[in-house]
């Protein structure tokens, strides 16, 4: 009996539109660049299993197979990152190209390759050659070119190995937007206003650096940076908002030791939270097998290797460790000559680099890129004689996001794994560890600047006159790793995890503690845990923000009909943001659209409140603190002010939801508002809409756009590994492995994902053969 892919292939071949993602069932493909044959087996869930005779051919075949599934995504990522969009899309993309080029790695390439370990240059070179091999194959089979290229009227471009590492703007850099927001709030309402922006850990009070005028920081100071890090908007297409993704980025991961599992084997689970409104997803699942290397899991589509998964002995997962790796510098320009900025009592020249940006249908455009000693200039205020530059860890060797995973992929024990993490550069990451010997652990890593200067904590912009410098970086070994923690498990959810009094403070701004608290609660409740238990934890939708806010609501009453109905609906709410919950529809609308903004305008002057209420990721721990101790926040009689805030904002939310879901709250559903939809970059075909539960405080995460309710951030990839019994592991990757709309694996996992399901993450070849969908043999030409 033919597999469904084989049937689809037959139909598509008859139509002359065979998809790039399914080159053939039982096909043999001759490729330039291979030394020996490679077997490529695609299982029924679209996961490729690559079997090569050596790692040279393995990384080549990985590039080839990723290109089969994700060529338009790969090509777009490369063009966006290198500043080459105008070359194919025309002059309207020149500004974005210029912005991207400001943040390219321009340092020593020998040091760059060495920083990722001895295999990095080989892996990147062969990976790029594999992508090129597939592009060359398409040259002989133009009918299989992904349809996006035909729609847009250009061909996919060849890669160079350097393309893999020079691009930096896909890294996470959320600190800058908070620096600017904090400066604007301080300008509007004084130094104490920053208290309302975000809770700081360890306990700390942000100080305005000497020499900084917070009012000199323009609201649009990061517009060039935002262009550099933005996704691509295509003609008549859609885009994701990367600034929102950065500001809300997070993940869950945990390792449960053998003493707490039913099998006596460790369990490692991980669900990174990435953009959930773009198609295809930001992770790609694969198995890579060659003598001495057998990796299974997921990684960035544009990176060789596997960043999240296992190597047959060691399992590894990661979450974002929000190390502050970026700073905004403010310079005084020479009023008589804006090509110079003040530095340590003198005037230092701005470094200027001119590059020609190729433009489709027009002559190349010469663009000047300006740099200070700290980084690229992103804005000049001519009238105020000010310049603003962004300093990042991205200019350092070894800071291409997640490529440091090449260092740990051969580790066989915790000591080797820890040693391999010493060169990890970016982004800051919590690496969670388990192995088949029974060990579990945690290794934090990422370039952590040593900031020098009074009141230089990275929380506000700083003058660029030499008083605020980075004195190198802390060694990763200075960060607090754990090996076999006494409680028998370790969990990470981007939470504040530094021990009390720890001497190295990598950051003061962390994600809220509620996901971590709920994970700990659920793991502790099951002393004989299974993989299914970890899958259930990943689906958990109980909000500990809700359970702490709701008691203040339940104590209130109102004679206003809408307010009374709202109070009654929330009075019985258990805080579980399930897709079928009526109270969740009201609660989520209330806190995200009305409560936080009302809270800001109650406590702050209007200008500062406007800045705070426009922040993407409100800090509800501060709202909870203020409700718990109202006099300290609202002033004398604070409880009455708190209650008035609740009673004023609840009916607004009630009428909002009623206008969308109808007047009868009994018929409301949270999934009737919040939905997931994966949007194709060109606008079609999209996958969804799919009703969605969860919120940003739940383990099953869902950060939604407050106007559309479309999920922006979610866990599109999840895995739960049975360490040592690898074929019993589970995974999901929504909406499908392929980015080619013609492929059966374009959307085939969406319904399974939406239902909280998963598929077997297979490692043994016999099991792969049992679930085989497509067999391809790559042979040397």
UniProtKB/TrEMBL annotation:
Signal peptide per UniProt: 1-20
Keywords, alphabetical: Hydrolase, Signal, Zymogen
Matches recorded under InterPro entries: Ntn_hydrolases_N, Pen/GL7ACA/AHL_acylase, Penicillin_amidase_A-knob, Penicillin_amidase_dom1, Penicillin_amidase_N_B-knob, S45
Domain of life, per lineage: Bacteria
Phosphoprotein among keywords: no
Protein's UniProt keywords contain tRNA processing: no
Family matches, as CDD domains: Ntn_PGA_like (cd03747)
Family recorded in the similarity comment: Belongs to the peptidase S45 family.
UniProt-recorded name of the protein: Penicillin acylase family protein
Organism the protein comes from: Amycolatopsis ultiminotia
